[in-house]
């Protein structure tokens, strides 16, 4: 069998693909995921807008708008029987990239998808008709936080498209 690994690729997607394939292979062979002690505990009840992340700073820094299209569609379809986890979070250049896992329904079905969003480069300035203007006063930290929130919403919309 040919070796399918390509060492010249180093993007975050290749690393996540290898990790996901390993997890799928473990599940296919009848094993359990080896994610630590929480994998043997009973699953938590499903609640909307609950973030479970590898790092508490990820969970604290990303809060969805309850009126966002993704949250509205999830509430319409599943009521309160859904939640999501942010599995990976990465900044690549001027883009925020997340891997989001959506758990939904009474049986706890799972969909996992990526979401991406551009990180704005600060305020926009210019001149129009001899009048100077400046739009956007957000700091770089606020811009990045907003981009990660939009990336999570995009990932959830991608998950919803698979349902």
Structure description:
By secondary structure, the protein is α+β, with helices and mostly antiparallel strands. The protein has one domain (43-162): Enolase-like, domain 1 (2-Layer Sandwich). Helix content is 34%, strand content 27%. The protein contains 4 helices and 6 strands. Strands 1-2-3-4 form a 4-stranded mixed beta sheet. A two-stranded antiparallel ribbon has the order 5-6. It is flat and about 70 Å long. The relative contact order is 0.14.
- Describe the global form: flat
Strand order of the largest sheet: 1-2-3-4
Enumerate the spans where pLDDT stays under 50 for 5 or more consecutive residues: 31-60
Distance between the termini: 35 Å
Quick synopsis:
With about 160 residues, the protein is an alpha+beta fold.
Set down the secondary structure blueprint.
Elements: H1 12-28, E1 51-53, H2 56-61, H3 69-78, E2 82-92, E3 95-104, E4 109-118, E5 124-128, E6 131-135, H4 140-162
Parallel strand pairs: 1-2
Antiparallel strand pairs: 2-3, 3-4, 5-6
Give keywords.
163 residues; alpha+beta; Enolase-like, domain 1; 4-stranded mixed beta sheet; two-stranded antiparallel ribbon
């Amino acid at each position: 069998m040919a070796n399918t690994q390509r060492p010249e690729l180093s993007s975050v997607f290749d690393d996540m693909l290898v990790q996901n394939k390993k997890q799928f292979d473990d599940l296919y062979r009848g094993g359990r995921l080896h994610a630590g002690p929480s994998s043997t505990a009973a699953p938590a009840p499903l609640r909307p807008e609950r973030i479970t992340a590898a790092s508490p700073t990820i969970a604290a820094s990303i809060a969805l708008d309850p009126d966002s299209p993704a949250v509205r569609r999830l509430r319409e379809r599943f009521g309160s029987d859904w939640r999501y986890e942010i599995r990976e979070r990465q900044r690549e250049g001027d883009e925020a990239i997340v891997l989001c896992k959506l758990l939904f329904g009474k049986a706890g079905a799972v969909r996992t998808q990526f979401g991406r969003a551009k990180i704005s480069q600060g305020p926009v300035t210019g001149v129009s008709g001899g009048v100077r203007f400046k739009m956007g006063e957000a700091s770089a930290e606020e811009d990045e936080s907003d981009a990660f929130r939009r990336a999570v919403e995009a990932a959830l919309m991608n998950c919803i498209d698979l349902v």
